[in-house]
């Protein structure tokens, strides 16, 4: 076992192999956080749509969830990266593949372009939105129906009932499952390596290919994943205790 | 993008079917192995002996903390090494399919053990106590009293996890095993028709998984009535 390998000079992108790991962690976090922004916004909209009395909104929401949940994430990754530029108008597709990569050079020794990053973020974000939507829906549905009736009886309109009664309650209830959804997106971001995004898993594999120190490279990446997971779980536990709704038991899990 | 050429799917039907068979084999072995070892892991985690429960909990939490792809890389690297250490053979002692199978069984057993643990814990503790009072030993009490009820309670969740597992089999793409997605990808590279082939893969997965998850939902409703 030779842990000094990480201090050796790397052939490109960053000074040492430790730099490659740092770059990998940075891009894992960048992809996860950007995708999380999409997932939480789209997921909330779709989740709310599935609880409304409007039949067409419920149908649209259900179609969204079923579509994104029943196609493997890796296949979705290929659909966004390889298929999407070919089925939209030719000029747009060419722009994505030829011009977008040169809009800006990605920082932190990224050896891939803005287009790979965008495709990965879109794919992960919209996929996770379908999971978030289910959590939001069950959060809204877990509150007693009487609250809605009471709100309507007091003269609130339906949007007001959502804004002042249902959503404040639902958001507090869904924080623990949201923690595990974030951990899921964090781990799922490794599928971006298949379209060339050099995130943490990809960097550890690249280090193993360059140095043949596979055990060390994989151990380092695994430890980083564990540390980030633990940090998220512990900091969210503190938040959960503060915002927990009395009478509703929910626990964060690492899945 | 010019015209679509869906004929390419028919041209490569043999290799696509082969790929689907590989995917299904991997799915079936991983499902059986995952449930079997997942049950043992769950029993170990709930054991009174720290020597069993601590390593089991450590393994499950470790696997659940890392990405599935990272776990595939790990077992892809470790399996041939460990096997050759035991058999003394070098190099090609285990093929890529075996390594993939080991990786999937390991990961799925960790996921299933969490489901099964919840199932076992859903059985009132008076039941194993009653079984013990009747003179049943641990394995009899588990085999005849606790597990049959736990599995019945957990059936919908386990089947939902099976649908997720079927989707996850596509991840063997990262170790260049020719599963359904891998076969389509190969045919796409040969013909330049990746659009048609990837769309086809997506539609096939969608139909299978939608039908399966609908069936699970119906089963869940039926079980709820029976209970």
What are the defining features of this structure?
heterodimer, A: 255 residues, mainly alpha, MetI-like fold, 10 helices, disordered C terminus, B: 227 residues, 0% strand, flat
Verbal overview:
The complex is a heterodimer of chains A (255) and B (227). Chain A has 255 residues and is an all-alpha fold. Helices cover 72% and strands 0% of the residues of chain A. The longest helix of chain A has 33 residues, at 17-49. Chain B is built from nine helices and no strands. Chain B has helices spanning 7-11, 13-45, 50-65, 68-87, 96-121, 126-133, 138-168, 180-191, 194-226. The longest helix of chain B has 33 residues, at 13-45. At the A-B interface, helix 2, helix 3, helix 9 and helix 10 of A face helix 3, helix 4, helix 7 and helix 9 of B.
**Shape label of chain A:** globular
Number of helices of chain A: 10
Percentage of helical residues of chain B?
over 70%
Rounded to an integer in angstroms, the radius of gyration calculated over CA atoms of chain A is 21 Å
CATH architectural category of chain A:
Orthogonal Bundle
Please name the fourth-level CATH homologous superfamily of chain A.
Answer: MetI-like
Largest sheet of chain B: none
H/E series of chain A, N to C?
Answer: HHHHHHHHHH
Q: How many discrete structural domains of chain A?
A: 1
**The CATH C-level class name of chain A:** Mainly Alpha
Contiguous uncertain segments of 5+ residues of chain A: 250-255
**CATH third-tier fold name of the domain at 23-176 in chain B:** MetI-like fold
Q: What's the architecture of the domain at 23-176 in chain B in CATH terms?
A: Orthogonal Bundle
Distance between the ends of chain B: 55 Å
How are the elements arranged and paired?
The complex is a heterodimer of chains A (255) and B (227).
Chain A: H1 17-49, H2 55-69, H3 73-87, H4 90-99, H5 114-142, H6 145-153, H7 158-173, H8 175-188, H9 200-211, H10 214-243
Helix pairs in contact in A: 1-2, 1-5, 1-8, 1-9, 2-5, 3-4, 3-5, 5-7, 5-8, 6-7, 8-10, 9-10
Chain B: H1 7-11, H2 13-45, H3 50-65, H4 68-87, H5 96-121, H6 126-133, H7 138-168, H8 180-191, H9 194-226
